[in-house]
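Saturday, quiet lab. Running sequence design on the structure tokens for the scaffold JK sent over.
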């Protein structure tokens, strides 16, 4: 599954990283990123396999500004 974080929409709330830390990371005062090993060409684009899909979808659903697209 492909994942994209819209950096313009991200409000740095940290919900994605706390919901699914295997896929999302966020340093204090910065926008959310995809964990390096799942990145595709940049920190806001990535891809995860089936074992992490549910986690990533839950994180996307938790985003209050809908900044995470999982292709659904």
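Result came back. Writing it out in full:
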């Amino acid at each position: 599954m492909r994942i994209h974080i819209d950096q313009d929409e991200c409000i740095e709330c940290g919900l994605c990283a706390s919901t699914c830390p295997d896929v999302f990371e966020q340093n204090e005062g910065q926008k959310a990123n995809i964990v390096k090993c799942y990145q595709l060409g940049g920190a806001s684009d990535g891809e995860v396999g089936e074992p992490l899909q549910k986690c990533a979808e839950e994180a996307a659903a938790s985003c209050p500004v809908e900044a995470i697209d999982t292709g659904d």
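Notes for JK: The helical segments are 15-19, 50-62. Residues 12 and 28 are 8 Å apart (CA to CA). Ask whether to fix the surface positions before the next round.
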